[in-house]
Specification:
This protein is mostly helical and 66 residues long. Helices cover 92% and strands 0% of the residues. It has helices at 2-24, 27-64. Helix 1 (2-24) runs antiparallel to helix 2. The two termini are 29 Å apart. The model has no long low-confidence stretch (mean pLDDT 90).
Length: 66
């Protein structure tokens, strides 16, 4: 769950940076904020996939044990 949470945090920070960039008219900051949001989303998705893989692995292990 750590990667998923880190991804969410990165998205929030990116959104804040984007809003600050809009408020100040700083196009570079806006772009960085959007990029941070995309990276955060990717990290969140990777975390979810990791959790699902772990769940599948655990369920397969449980099936093999009598």
């Amino acid at each position: 769950m750590a990667e998923k949470a880190k991804g969410k945090i990165e998205q929030v920070k990116g959104k804040a940076k984007e809003v600050a960039g809009k408020a100040t008219g700083n196009e570079r900051m806006k772009a960085e904020g959007r990029a941070d949001q995309v990276k955060g989303k990717a990290r969140e998705v990777a975390g979810k996939a990791e959790e699902q893989a772990r769940g599948v692995k655990d369920s397969l292990r449980d099936r093999r044990q009598p």
